[in-house]
Amino acid sequence: MFKLRKTYKDYTDEALMPLVVKGNEKAFDELYQRYSGKMHYYFFRMLGQDQDRADDFTQDLFMRVIEKGAYFDPKQRFSTWLYAVAGNMCKNEYRRMERRPEQALPENFEIAMQRDGMYLDSATDQALFRQQLHKALEDLDFTHRQCFILRYQQDLAIREISEILGCPEGTVKSRLYYTLRKLATALHIFNPKVSKKKTRSDKTSTIEAFQSTKE
After folding, report:
1. Is 0.85 surpassed by the pTM of this model?
2. Domain range for residue 65?
3. What's the rounded mean pLDDT across residues 88-106?
4. Which of 5, 12, 115, 165 has the smallest number of Cβ neighbours within 10 A?
């Protein structure tokens, strides 16, 4: 009986990397197909919705995959390593620009809000909501903004975010708690469950509605 020939699509990311290091173009193409779209979107969100910069950073990222591939540890998840490299690129860009980039609202954030217990009334002015959320996100530093995007836009698990950022899972949860607390405070008027005369327990409930995280 003949065995079916294994294709590059059958390889794991981690198995493809040693081949990329050896100059295997097809192995690189497979990784590029798997991650280029996702990483382009990540850069697009992190760099103020600048299409040209997202294009350039995506290309630079995959050049680094080729040039720095020898430093990749096969025992580590490739996606974790890739996000860590991308995050460092963004951090360096922020420093270079000496300003905070405009942060766009992740498209699925309102879905995440509903999943986590925060609902918008159908009569709510969506434009005003997005404006206020945008302002709240602008007040975040790089670290908390990155946590927010990895969790709610890239939809990564807490464990993987901790590996990307090189910090304990508890630290990631703490940063998300801080971020969601600020957002809950800034956006409490959009929560019909919170009255105008909200008590401390009302505020706590609003914060807790944001806290649901997947493991």
Report:
1. no
2. 10-97
3. 71
4. 5
